[in-house]
Write a structure and sequence with these properties.
This protein is α+β, with helices and mostly antiparallel strands. The protein has eight helices and five strands. Strands 2-1-5-4-3 form a five-stranded antiparallel β-sheet. α2 packs antiparallel against α3 and α2 runs antiparallel to α4. It is elongated, with a radius of gyration of 21 Å.
Length: 185
């Protein structure tokens, strides 16, 4: 249970995974304590510890998965590239980006997260020239949010010249964000 707390604190699992797994471990602990109470000399509790499969299943079942991403140039509500399965409708993406660009420019990069009414989540990373919006099935872990931020920073670094010249031709740019969708396909 302590290792699970450390995993969450380190951003390697999301809140839902933490709660589901903690409940599972608490259940196992209760069973072990009852077995030991009934017969302290028995090794029956070891069988509970050896039960495999459910924890891995729960981790996978409650892991946030990216559905789609969109990348838009600063000040533009229409993305220069959208990829992935059906996610947010184009109008919803445009509303989010329009709202983002109304904010005063921040120093450095910005990272935000927002739960949607359907229980899905959005991570939004923005910096000097553009923003990356990623739609997830569930609340992403802190590590997944940092990955979005890092992919966006790599996008801006790799495409600095065309972005600074406002040459928004997606076919002439590289998009590290594609790794999010391609690794889950």
């Amino acid at each position: 249970m302590g290792a699970l707390v450390e995993e969450y604190a380190g951003g390697r699992i999301n809140r839902t995974q933490f709660h589901v797994l903690y409940s599972r471990y608490s259940e196992q602990r209760s069973i072990i304590e009852k077995l030991m109470e009934r017969n302290p000399d028995s090794d029956a509790w070891k069988q509970v510890m050896r039960t495999r499969g459910q924890t891995g299943f729960l981790r996978a079942q409650f892991q946030a998965r990216p559905i789609m991403f969109a990348v838009a140039a600063r000040g533009r509500a229409t993305p220069m590239l959208t990829s992935g399965g059906p996610g947010l409708e184009a109008a919803a993406v445009e509303r989010l980006l329009t709202g983002l660009w109304r904010l005063p420019p921040a120093e450095g990069s910005m990272l935000g997260r927002k739960e949607q009414p359907d229980g899905t989540w959005i991570i939004l990373a923005a910096s000097t020239f553009a923003a990356t919006l990623v739609h997830f099935t569930l609340e992403p872990s802190s590590g997944q949010a940092r990955l979005v931020r890092d992919l966006h920073a790599d996008f801006e670094r790799a495409n600095r010249l065309p972005l600074s010249r406002q040459l928004y031709q997606a076919e002439r740019m590289v998009f590290p964000q594609r790794a999010l969708i391609e690794q889950t396909s």
